[in-house]
Amino acid sequence: MSKQVFKPNKEFSKNARIKNMCEYQDLQDFAAEDYEGFWGSYAKEKLEWIEPFTNVLDESNAPFVKWFDGGKLNVSSQCIDRHLDSRKNKAAIIFEGDRGDKQIITYLELYYNVNKLANLLKEDFGVQKGDRVVIYMPMIPEAAYAMLACARIGAIHSIVFGGFSSEALKDRIEDAEAKVVITADGAYRKTKPYMLKPVVDAAIDENSPVKKVLVVERNNEDVTWVAGRDYSYNELIKNKSGVCEPEVMDAEDPLFLLYTSGSTGKPKGVQHNSAGYILWAQMTMEWVFDVKENDTYWCTADVGWITGHTYIVYGPLAMGATTVMFEGVITHPDAGRPWKMVEEHRINQFYTAPTAIRVLHKMGEHEPAKYDLSSLKVLGTVGEPIDPPAWKWYYEEVGASKCAIVDTYWQTETGGHVVSPLPGATPIKAGCATLPLPGIMAEILDPATGELAEPGETGYMCITRPWPSQIRGVWGDPERYIKSYFGDVKKDGKAVYFTGDGARYDEDGYITITGRTDDVINVSGHRMGTAEVEAAIKKHPNVAEVAVVGKPHDIKGEGIFAYIVLKSDKGVADEVEEVKAINKVIQKEIGNIALCDDMVFAPGLPKTRSGKIMRRILRAIAKGEEITQDISTLEDPSIVETISTMVNK
Ligand code: WTA
């Protein structure tokens, strides 16, 4: 890792919310000395309460915690209503469609659009507080209206990324027992229409808990309509009232579920609740992106992931910012698309994933120079470690060596950033997420002792005190919540939150994330559980056994490498056909995002005598590394040599 340190831009720091490391340290000290005082004062200052909270943090039932108990509020009001006095004509959302079509939605328009949809859900579909609504949408403003409309009436939304297959959608619908799905006929990608509604149709059968489907007509392609179940948003919305009183919600009422992969079993429904989540979404927008009143902020994520939730919709709107929503593909029509958008919309903060930076670098190294990018002040990255060459290009060519790069480390479960530079204060280093944000007790611990890891030693990235935007539970499975997050590391005898990531301190106490320690693969910043991919592949009738591991990939960060053992009587007749057939199963069960980069048809897998697959060995083989582990205890040590030869041939 480069040791070079880049100081914040002096001009920028002057007007930043946190201007230097002394101010950062003061905030850290405040939180360390009076944790509840710290969070309580921000909750009072930043949120508009219908009724004030009586208690800041209740840990009596830890790890099930409550923040701001007794307080009442509504998250959609935090994002819309409270801005109407001072910002009613300000752009809340700037939408750019795939084909370059543009739309500006002011805060007042957002208010009406959200309220109409809230009324529709209540009146026409009978959606009530606490009901689950699945949102399966393209990147269009109606996706944001749907989220906020649910929040307005107290329904719990669960967004399923539009790239997931009908099987994956079905699983998530059933786990959450959702009664409504909001979708679109489809949308556009690289100017061509693509479809979503048929996927929804395939996910719902007569036993489905879903009784109503609302369809936004975006590309107007032909779709099937099921009478009594499917309704056109464009029709129903016409005669709805634009006023809908927000439901009075408890601070700890659930706001949304978002399914994410873990190391075992099916994806889990990560639950976020109202007050704590929206507080940290807003505070991190203010601190980490330092968005100012007239700024235009763009996050390229999809609303189907947590980054889209917190940093396209909830965070920017909670602080009253202008957020850009983009339907298209950033490399289309060429790798200058994002820079053209930065120039046209005069974007001030740009937030994307290392995968995107690597693609843009590779496909359009000199594209940034063709556009006026002088409006940019802060560049962000998220989702995976960023490699120094990508970082350098981003810093120098996109940011003209004057913009801070905020390498934001966080997860679906943390709700918002937890380790990140502050653009006006923190000196930065390439590929380094730097320091915990004020109020977040993020520490790298030695899992064996629970002590702080020594500089240079890889330890476990933990958070040792609850924080407001913390995951509140795994939907329907409290045991899994405890087991997944509070089982591995103890500090002073007490179980602490473990992220699943490894990390190390450098000599300055800066944090570098080294990647997952569990069986989760990070493909283009998307989390895939090896167990999930394996379960999909096993559905193919010829497959006897399978083990999936991650393998470093130039663009995607990690690719998926599958070792497959076919049933003995089948043999591999035609490898190309076999790969195709297995890929088809993966597409059906999960979606294109889980397609394997490599498949090897092995005669067997390296296993311990108790039958445990040694993934560590398989990872090493996939990387082409020498096997240094002792393999003599394996059930069949010779299999290692056999597979290595197959992979390296
Ligand atoms: C990884 C995405 C290194 C990490 C917000 C984490 C990162 C997982 C970074 C969460 C970063 C996220 N540097 N690794 N800046 N940010 N990760 O839930 O492994 O989709 O556990 O949330 O992405 O992925 P998730």
Automatic annotation (TrEMBL):
Q: Which InterPro entries match?
A: Ac_CoA_lig (IPR011904), ACAS_N (IPR032387), AMP-bd_C (IPR025110), AMP-bd_C_sf (IPR045851), AMP-binding_CS (IPR020845), AMP-dep_synth/lig_dom (IPR000873), ANL_N_sf (IPR042099)
Task: State whether keyword ATP-binding applies.
Answer: yes
Q: Does the keyword ATP-binding apply?
A: yes
One GO CC term of this entry?
A: cytosol
What's the EC number here?
6.2.1.1
Q: Which Gene3D superfamilies match?
A: 3.30.300.30, N-terminal domain of ligase-like
A Pfam family annotated for this chain is: ACAS_N
Mind listing the UniProt keywords for this protein, alphabetically? Acetylation, ATP-binding, Ligase, Magnesium, Metal-binding, Nucleotide-binding
Catalytic activity from the UniProt record = acetate + ATP + CoA = acetyl-CoA + AMP + diphosphate
In what residue span(s) does the Acetyl-coenzyme A synthetase N-terminal domain sit? 24-79
Q: Which HAMAP family match?
A: Ac_CoA_synth (MF_01123)
Entry's family note: Belongs to the ATP-dependent AMP-binding enzyme family.
What does the UniProt record say this protein does?
Catalyzes the conversion of acetate into acetyl-CoA (AcCoA), an essential intermediate at the junction of anabolic and catabolic pathways. AcsA undergoes a two-step reaction. In the first half reaction, AcsA combines acetate with ATP to form acetyl-adenylate (AcAMP) intermediate. In the second half reaction, it can then transfer the acetyl group from AcAMP to the sulfhydryl group of CoA, forming the product AcCoA.
Can you say what this protein is called? Answer: Acetyl-coenzyme A synthetase
> What is the protein's species of origin?
Candidatus Sulfurimonas baltica
Gene (UniProt)? acs
